Amino acid sequence: MTRKPIIAGNWKMNKNYGEAVVLAQAISNRLEKDWLDRVDVIVCPPFIDLKPVKTVFEFDRMNVELGAQNVHWEEAGAFTGEISVGMLKNVGCAFCIVGHSERRTLMGETNEEVNKKAKALIAANMKPIICVGESLAVREAETHEEFVCAQVKAAFAGIPAAQAKSCVVAYEPIWAIGTGRTATPEQAEAMCVAIRQTLAELYDATVAEGMRILYGGSMNPGNVEMLTAQPNIDGGLIGGASLEADSFVDLIKACL
């Protein structure tokens, strides 16, 4: 089965309003519209930058999707500092990252919370990008496949197959995020195979084969071709390399 690749840029806590507009415009200027028929491109800026970034791509008629970096599962209420699915959808978000390793480790986000966020997004016809991954200690203990597959099972608990199809999974080895270290193509592929096998166990082989799995650990123009050549890696969730238009567009071109 041929799966359309995804290149998703996670800007994290970078770029103020003006800088976000400049970066979005630089990306738009370097893209060819027909590329977007072959690669799904998503940008995930900070909350305050969502609307201006969306406006840039809409004005240029570039079919670049907008994604958020986090969401709360409740519709509204006394949740100071949080943002709802409805708010994200209202500004044009189609995707949202949930369970990123930085939120798991720094903000204490749990598997159960990831599951609730994914369900809330699906209910609003938005697509979760569900992040899973292991620390260096787990990798060195050689329990990484068991650990990551348990995260997958917890994230998809109670989500039926028809809804799971719209979800994206991003494998991000924590030890390779922002460190300059990268899992070898063989290491990344082995984990993505295990994730796809877990999805097949939860649903069936057809559903699992149709779902897209991204690699999210320091993918850059120097290693993108080796990683995306692996049969179970369908693109990347990009951190640092998404903050420069040239490197981000180079990653997109590598997937054409």
Written overview of the protein:
With 256 residues, the chain is an alpha/beta fold. Helix content is 43%, strand content 15%. The chain is built from 12 helices and 8 strands. The protein has an 8-stranded parallel beta sheet with strand order 7-6-5-4-3-2-1-8. The longest helix is centred in the C-terminal third of the chain and has 18 residues, at 185-202. The relative contact order is 0.15.
Rg calc = 17 Å
Shape: globular
Alpha plus pi helix count: 12
Q: What is the overall pLDDT average?
A: 96
Low-confidence stretches: none
**Protein structure class:** alpha/beta
Strand percent estimate: 5-15%
Beta strands, count? 8
Summarize the amount of helix as a percent range: 40-55%
Strand order of the largest sheet: 7-6-5-4-3-2-1-8
> How far apart are the first and last residues' alpha carbons, in Å?
17 Å
Order of helices and strands: EHEHEHEHHEHHHEHHEHEH
